[in-house]
Specification:
Blueprint lengths: L5 H8 L3 H21 L5 H15 L7 H25 L18 H6 L5 H8 L3 H12 L4 H8 L3 H21 L5
Helix pairs in contact: 1-2, 2-3, 2-4, 3-4, 7-9, 8-9
Length: 182
């Protein structure tokens, strides 16, 4: 393996692939280690980004191996700072794992409509128009997603959302006015 000297840097600036390979081989492990030590989320991916930017700007670089090393690490440092800022603005995401969810309380809708044969539930649902009633029944009692409900009804997801929203508002109005009790 060739040493990273001024002659290799000059050849890399001239576009010689073998010299660019030497630059990458010599500096990428150090950049990767630096990024990992800074706590970068995807150090390998960011190392690739650093070298893509370095390769674009390599023909305009002045100086030899010392200046190239300084330039490479200034790009790496800037990318590490960008990563830290990005993560501070956006909290870490964790996938939802239903098997680890220990909540056991049903939603208000599910609790209210749990007993679909209950005369009170039947009376309340009868106060909705047919489309609203069907959406509430499929979503709450049938436990279907918006997309599944839309597929069953042959409607768009947006239309199902609107029907559900209007139905829940109607139910709220009925309950708040005392016309029905759940």
């Amino acid at each position: 393996m060739a040493e990273l000297g001024d002659d290799v840097v000059a050849a890399a600036r001239a576009g010689r692939a073998d010299a660019v390979g030497v630059v990458y081989t010599a500096l990428s492990p150090k950049v990767l280690g630096y990024l990992r030590s800074r706590g970068v989320e995807d150090a390998e991916g960011l190392t690739s980004e650093v070298f893509l930017q370095v390769l674009k700007r390599l023909p305009n670089l002045r100086g030899g191996a010392a200046e190239l090393r300084t330039f490479v690490f200034s790009v790496a440092h800037a990318r590490a700072v960008d990563d830290i800022r990005r993560r501070s603005r956006r909290p870490a995401e964790s996938p939802y794992e239903p098997e680890r969810d220990d909540r056991v309380t049903a939603s208000a809708e599910v609790a209210a409509f749990e007993d679909a044969d209950n005369p009170d539930v039947v009376n309340v649902l009868a106060r909705l128009n047919d489309d609203q009633r069907t959406v509430v029944q499929l979503r709450v009692i049938g436990d279907l997603s918006l997309e599944q409900t839309a597929a069953v009804l042959g409607r768009s997801t947006g239309a199902v959302k609107q029907l559900q929203r209007r139905a829940l508002l109607q139910l709220r109005t009925l309950v708040e006015s005392g016309e029905v009790a759940l």
